[in-house]
Amino acid sequence: MKNKELEPEIMVADPILSRVTELMARPIISVFFPELKDFIQPLSGEYGGRRSILEKMQFFSGYGVEMALLIQAVETLRAEEIGQVYLWERTHKLQEVPALGRMSACILHTVLDMAYARGRIGFMPDHHFLLRQYISEKSSSFKPIDLRISNDQLPPMNSVSAYLNQRVSNGFT
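^ that's the sequence the OP posted. Answer follows.
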């Protein structure tokens, strides 16, 4: 993997701004996909690629999309075809902790789905799309809320006939 214009003092991710990366993504990458460990910001919110490559990849909905694309990129491309670029400062609105829990659950389920599909784990629980969180009512009692975590797997674009027909009608091959 190539690092474009990265300086060592810049490469340190701010742990306050990378909470999901540091608390959930890096540990699960280390266990199931250690080949991704050299990505500095695997959940940066920004990625790019050639259409010819992205059209062949399966996308996941929700917050798992980046992790799924990274896993597929590492599987299908040579190391010298993958790069990361420091895009200077990005300001993201800090999410509340419950939102980070939902984000983490979606990423976790994406990684587990992909690990299962690749034989890296032998089971997937039936209830893996449900997340229980608690909200405080009057600060002394808590109410459970069960949330369905959206993690739909979408087919590669080059297998969607409507997309292929539109490309042909627009003069692309």
